[in-house]
Amino acid sequence: MRTTNSLPHVTVTRLTTGLALLAAAASSAHAEDRVYLESLHPSTGFNSDCNQPVFALPAPLPPDVHFDFIGLHNPESVPGDPGNDALPLTADSCVNALDQAVATTTNADFRAVNGFPDADERLKNRRSNEVPMPTLLDGTRIAAPPEGAVGAPFPTTHSLPADAMTLGEFRDVSGVMRVTCRDDGTGKVEIRAFGYRPNAMVTVWAIWYATPPGAPGPVIVPLPFGGVPNMLAINNRGNGVFVRELGYCPMDVTDNGEQLLVVDLAEHWDGVTYGALPDQPLTEYDFLLDPTDPESAFRSFVGGTVTMNRGVFRMTAQ
After folding, report:
1. CA dist 299 to 48, 121, 195, Å?
2. How far apart are alpha carbons 165 and 92 in whole angstroms?
3. Which of 75, 96, 183, 278 measures 20 to 30 Å from 227, CA to CA?
4. What rounded mean pLDDT belongs to the chain?
5. What is the mean pLDDT of residues 211-220?
6. Closest CA to 105 of 127, 76, 81, 82
């Protein structure tokens, strides 16, 4: 049985309970099964925690590849102003900025690597409770007020809690994962996650280094872990369970060298999941800044501003 690195910012009770449950299950596994236990590490992007790499990626990748997908809310910048954006995270942020609100941004390096277009500046520097979500019948996205702030039944509201999330809260997640690899080549994954927003929409992603069909060579690609749907149901206490049967052992490198690097948990601030994709970076959507003002409508790509990595498990990465 493989154990894992120690974690900062975890609640001991949460982790002890989760590990005890998974360890009990592991003790009942068949003798020929391989069982791996991993702990969730906080993350603020792909293999990143406050702009520092979480794990060393295997060759031929550079070991320190990482991209932040959130920033700190900049109160001096207003969505729509020229150059509007959140403040970038630094290693110091994880020490001295934990009480500051996190906000949307886009990562220029990540966009350049993938050839993704940028989102409109009006979608940047938005706190977690300010991200527009599909509200109108034609799919137009509007930032919803919190539940209880307006009379029922209209307009559509944001479920509670609906306050802006701080960096400390964003990183205060923990969890355990048990992977079983059977001698017939199949596998099973069980995840218990703690510390998420009550009733949050969270999905689970297997981050592979693999060659997609038609591609000239291997790339880093997110795939729904265990297939679609890959929702991790978070309850009203902020905890959730994810169990999937697998047709392979996710801890093994394939015969042609493809490997599952890490498993990411992603939170969807727009209240939308996108099937087999974390979001749709090449699709434009309609937005309305002010529901009473048709002139406030605009169209934009959303890549990087709606789906936030919020916790990572080590697989073949070190």
Report:
1. 30, 11, 34
2. 18
3. 183
4. 91
5. 94
6. 127
* CB contact set of 159 (below 8 Å; sequence gap of 6+): 147, 199
Tell which residue, 120, 143, 139, has the closest CA to residue 131. 143
pLDDT band at residue 18 using 50, 70 and 90 as cut-offs: low
Location of structure tokens 């979001």: 279
Q: Which long-range contacts (CB under 8 A, 24 or more apart) does 1-4 make?
A: 1/26, 1/35, 1/36, 1/37, 2/36, 2/37, 2/38, 3/37, 4/37, 4/38, 4/39, 4/314
Tokens of 224: 């729904």
CA–chain centroid gap for 170, Å, is 11
Q: What is the distance between the alpha carbons of residues 37 and 292, in angstroms, rounded to a whole number?
A: 52
Amino acid at site 52: Q
CA terminus-to-terminus distance, the chain: 16
